[in-house]
Design a protein that fits this description.
By secondary structure, the protein is mainly beta. It is built from two helices and twelve strands, in the order H-E-H-E-E-E-E-E-E-E-E-E-E-E. A hairpin with a 2-residue loop joins strand 8 and strand 9.
């Protein structure tokens, strides 16, 4: 009887030490036995390369502007919290023609497209989520686009919001900006595009 109690205690100690090892800093909370997490096929369609551009017309101000992909690149990198787990990462940088600002960086990872990703997790920065429900058909400027995903994102600096309408064939097809009073201040509609993948 005493021997059975000792065996049970030893088994419990071994079990708890194995569990601690799985949740340790070396393994992290989201580590898996799958060594590399690749970008999904749906999100891979957003691998726009240098030379891609979109021409938008703002239906409110009637201004026309062009967004250009300035650079693009990919890598397979380890997670900081999982030294034995890797993830495929692709990013492209865009800015309007004639604008000397740094521009925005769009990154692809797993099943998400993110804008100006601030952390490895990137959940707060996503503007498109693979597998999410889509709008069957949406008329933009002069044509219909199918399988469009709409994503509303709050802007912490201005207090306003931005609504992105994106599909995997053409990328950005409509971008609406709202001020802090929820008034629409800009509606950029895709007029022309040139896509390089």
């Amino acid at each position: 009887m005493k021997l059975n109690g000792i065996i049970v205690v030893i088994i419990l100690i071994l079990f708890s030490s194995c569990k601690k090892n799985q949740d340790s800093h070396e393994r992290g909370p989201d580590c898996s036995q799958k060594p590399t997490k690749y970008i999904t096929s749906e999100i891979s369609n957003f691998k726009f390369k240098q030379g891609t551009y979109w021409i938008f017309i703002d239906s409110i101000s009637l201004a026309v502007d062009t967004m250009n992909v300035l650079s693009a690149g990919s890598s397979i990198t380890p997670y900081t919290y999982c030294e034995n787990n890797f993830h495929e990462f692709y990013a492209f940088k865009m800015r309007p023609t004639g604008n000397n600002t740094i521009g925005d960086q769009y990154s692809l990872e797993g099943n998400r497209l993110m804008r100006n990703q601030r952390s490895e997790d990137g959940t707060d920065d996503q503007i498109y989520l693979g597998g999410a429900p889509k709008i069957d058909s949406l008329f933009i400027y002069d044509r219909y686009y199918k399988a469009v995903e709409g994503y509303l994102k709050s802007d912490l600096q201005s207090g306003g919001k931005t609504a992105y309408f994106i599909n995997t064939d053409f990328g950005f097809i409509k971008i609406e900006r709202y001020n802090s009073n929820n008034q629409l201040i800009s509606r950029r509609l895709l007029k022309e595009k040139f896509i390089v993948r």
